[in-house]
Specification:
Elements lengths: L6 H35 L11 H9 L3 H14 L3 H8 L1 H8 L3 H10 L1 E3 L2 E3 L6 H33 L18 H15 L14 H22 L6 H5 L3 H26 L13
Antiparallel strand pairs: 1-2
């Protein structure tokens, strides 16, 4: 009959109505959860006679506070498509996806969940596989954070000037024959008096005077070595001295070298010493 509607047209009309009702249901499900979120966050459930959100959820909706909080979390993440999300992936898997960073979740939804056997579509991946992927992400984040902290510490150490620590070690450089030499010197002092032969030009009028001078010189050198030998063990410290101090050090060392050379030449008879002595018969 002309007034009858074909089954195809009727099917399309019914499907369109179902789709519109479904879209409205999703929209109102989201709005419903957002209203409950306001009641929870502003603690307005107290105005309705409930002392806690848990009692409100149980008394008004017959669900636990934990379940309602999870549904609110899903609505926050997926918006008006929350019902479609839950119906496609289930409540537990949807929660796992909701707790991912938005960029990670977008990658998973588009390219699948990385698993031991390769990527799987999010719909096919198990809850355990999604949880394993989340753990691997947290481990990578923790490792990256650790490396960043180490790099910061290394950068601070690189900018910090080197710390120069001076340690003084008492070293006993007393010659093995020190006591014998000291005793002989005291004997010369007792016999010939004080050893004040440190004028610019020393005149040794007697052979004994020269012997005393040599003994005094020997003791002075040994005491000098004993006092300053430790400095030879601090090359790195001396290298880091200011320029003036280093110059003083270098000049002193050169003076010692020249003096040592002079004494060596005198011993070998290459220089005539500016002194004379008379043998005492």
């Amino acid at each position: 009959m002309r007034g009858e509607i074909s089954n195809e047209v009727r099917a399309k009309e019914i499907h369109a109505k179902a789709r519109s009702y479904y879209d409205v249901a999703e929209q109102y499900a989201y709005k419903f959860l957002m209203e409950l979120k306001t009641l929870r966050d502003e603690r307005l459930f107290r105005e309705l006679g409930y002392s806690s959100f848990e009692k409100y959820c149980d008394g008004e909706w017959g669900v636990t506070r934990q379940l309602m909080n999870q549904r609110i979390q899903l609505a926050d993440e997926f918006g008006e498509k929350v019902e479609n999300q839950v119906s496609t992936f289930g409540h537990s898997k949807s929660l796992l996806l909701a707790r991912m960073d938005p960029e990670v979740r977008a990658d998973v939804m588009e390219n699948g969940v990385p698993t031991e056997t390769g990527r799987k579509p999010a719909e096919e991946a198990t809850r355990a596989e999604i949880e394993a992927y989340q753990r691997s992400l947290k481990e990578k984040e923790a490792e990256i954070e650790r490396l960043e902290i180490e790099n910061e510490q290394l950068a601070k150490q690189a900018d910090k000037p080197p710390e120069i620590r001076t340690e003084y070690i008492e070293v006993d450089n007393t010659p093995h024959d020190y006591e014998t030499t000291k005793q002989r010197l005291e004997e010369y002092r007792a016999k010939f008096g004080d050893l004040e032969n440190y004028d610019e030009h020393i005149t040794a009028t007697h052979r004994q005077d020269m012997i005393v001078a040599v003994m005094s010189f020997s003791q002075g050198v040994r005491e000098f070595i004993k006092r300053y030998d430790y400095m030879t063990k601090y090359k790195s410290v001396i290298d880091n001295l200011d320029e003036e101090s280093k110059q003083q050090y270098d000049e002193a060392v050169e003076a010692l070298k020249e003096m040592a050379g002079t004494f060596d030449f005198t011993l070998k008879g290459n220089i005539v010493f500016d002194a004379e002595y008379n043998e005492i018969n």
